[in-house]
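Minutes, project check-in
Item: structure for the 105-residue chain
Input as provided by the requester:
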Amino acid sequence: MENIENVIPEEEAAILTLTDENGNDQNFEYLDVIEYQGKEYLILMPAEEEETHIVILEIEPVDEENENYLAVSDEALAEKLRQSRAAESQKVLEKNAAIEAKFNS
């Protein structure tokens, strides 16, 4: 697994700059954090690429202030996390549609 160190996020733009083990910086758009089987996973999308794909990183606490992020290399786990996020997104969309329908009635 690749070990990635967190650099300070640009909160307003929801952009995180992560530095990999080779010292290379890359910007990611923050999408979500998912808890699955007692672990937390960061869901990101590369901010500077034309092709959109989701990056899933396991959050590994180092101490109270720092975290490491580990690339999820298990494709079965990655698929379960994608499905979990899709299901949660669908619930939010349905809830928002119901609220909007009430206001439009």
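Outcome recorded: The chain has one domain: 3-104.
No further action items on this chain.
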